[in-house]
């Protein structure tokens, strides 16, 4: 019986120690409970009395300088023999007809943008997307390059869709 009482006492002591350790770990000194502020905290350098003995050195407090900026990145040339496309594909007859239809309506996109938008329109039509959905996406595409036309993005989207239907999606 004495052995059982000793085991119970030992087990209770272990549990109490573990509980104290867990509770102590959840103390109030945690940084998670502090409220961050957007203000910088600064301290003033200690004031030194002026003396003429020459041993005291004075240090000027300077304001922080602006961060150094890196020069703009320049694209590196592709090494010879690098796998993958080396440039843009030559425009096909459909590309040229699509670009001509856009230019006739006053839209002059880059060939890459025109191919991308025309390709989206044709794929969306093939997949059965609704005209409203297609118009929404094309309007967003056209709106990212407002320099290509003086038309409003919604009007330019209509031109893109009609031009793609008649020249590109065949």
Which properties best describe this structure?
170 residues, DUF732, mainly alpha, 5 helices, elongated, 48% helix, DUF732 domain-containing protein, 0% strand
Low-confidence stretches: none
Tally of helical segments: 5
N-to-C span = 94 Å
What is the radius of gyration computed over CA atoms, rounded to a whole number of angstroms? 36 Å
The largest β sheet comes out as: none
Gross morphology: elongated
**Could you give the count of β-strands?**
0
Pattern of helices and strands = HHHHH
- The percent range for helix content is 40-55%
Structural class: mainly alpha
Averaging pLDDT over every residue, what do you get?
Answer: 76
- Beta-strand content estimate: under 5%
Keywords: Signal
Protein name: DUF732 domain-containing protein
Region (Disordered): 28-94
Domain DUF732: 94-169
Can you describe what's shown?
It contains five helices and no strands. The protein starts with a helix and ends with a helix. The model has no long low-confidence stretch (mean pLDDT 76). The protein has a domain at 93-168. With 170 residues, it is mainly α.
